[in-house]
Amino acid sequence: MKKQTAGRDQLGTLAPKFAELNDDVLFGEIWSRENVLSLRDRSMITISALMAQGLFPQLK
User: Fold this and answer.
1) What's the structural domain count of the chain?
2) 1 assigned to some structural domain
3) 22, 7 Cβ separation under 8 angstroms
4) How many other C-beta atoms are found inside a 10 Å radius of the C-beta of residue 23?
5) pLDDT in tens, 7-41
6) What pTM did the predictor assign?
7) Class of residue 22 by CB neighbours under 10 A (exposed 0-12, middle 13-18, buried 19+)
């Protein structure tokens, strides 16, 4: 059975390939590469990107 995520739930019907790439490739393969970029560094990059865009409510 294929794992369902929020991306697939919201985009699966409209853009199934995009939802697959988002869930499986971006968050499945790339985000989980802990030997390339540590969890701490990934979190710092995410926080910096959110702050740079002024998306402060998403930091909670």
Assistant:
1) 1
2) no
3) yes
4) 19
5) 677 777 788 888 888 777 777 777 777 788 888 88
6) 0.50
7) middle
